[in-house]
Amino acid sequence: MAQINKIAIDALAEFKDATLISHPDFAINRGVEVAVAIGRVMKRGEPYRFMENRIVRVLRGFVRFSINLREYLISEGEALYIGQNSVAEILDYDANSVVDLLGFTLSAENENIKEEYLVGSENEQWMEEYFQLIYTISAIRPFDRRSVEHLLLSLHYRIVDSTASSHHSKGRREELFRLFIEQLNTHRGKHELSFYAERMNISPQYLSRLVFETSGTAASDWINRAVTLQAKLLLRSSGHTIEQIAEELNFSTTPYFCRFFKREVGITPTAYRKNNYL
Fold this sequence. Notes:
By secondary structure, the chain is an alpha+beta fold. The chain folds into 2 domains: 6-168, Regulatory protein AraC (Jelly Rolls, Sandwich), CATH 2.60.120; 172-277, Arc Repressor Mutant, subunit A (Orthogonal Bundle). Helices cover 44% and strands 21% of the residues. The chain has helices at 34-37, 124-138, 145-168, 172-186, 193-200, 204-215, 219-235, 242-248, 254-265, 269-277; strands spanning 6-7, 20-23, 26-33, 48-50, 53-60, 62-67, 70-75, 79-82, 87-93, 98-104, 117-119. The mean pLDDT is 86.
């Protein structure tokens, strides 16, 4: 399996930023411009894999993300909690957007979230209190890892609990659609709707109808989007030929993969790779 472009917290240490506090497996950056805090490590519209949990909290403006194929528009006062190993793209943001950024891992592996949580603006006050307390304590030398870890775990549970009602209120159709997206993110090299339907124990016909009625987008388009996302990630990795990537993504021939990619992205895989390494 090819290695893909990843963003880990320790990569942030090279940036000399007065608002950034960074330790192994933990970093917090408060009140920074999106173009500065994110734009220097991520290109707009390009996918990256986050190696740790992330929280993006918008203080001014907006940021539009694609996280694991689903789009989120985060406006002033809102926050997005993103699970580790997620694939993220910045789709758009206001030129004057300002955000808080928090990246971390939790000691207990089962506490790392597996999906995204959108935290509404009604929770802005306690989110601010958590961020300020974490920022203050993490700035103390020597670094009090245990205190920060307890605060992060508390914040984790507070976010999960505050969004639990919306998650539990989802009907079966929405839950099945969520499962479909989860399967897409796990098996990005699979092209057949029947593959996903079988794993979900429903018929392809029902899955096709459910996905379109729930999202307004055909299941085949969702599948193509997942395959394209993985292709982008692999093309931006070094050491793998176009032929190897086509094979890994289960295309019958390399020309077929190239035609698919150009149809979805607008340029050939070779041109895409060249543009991202110049």
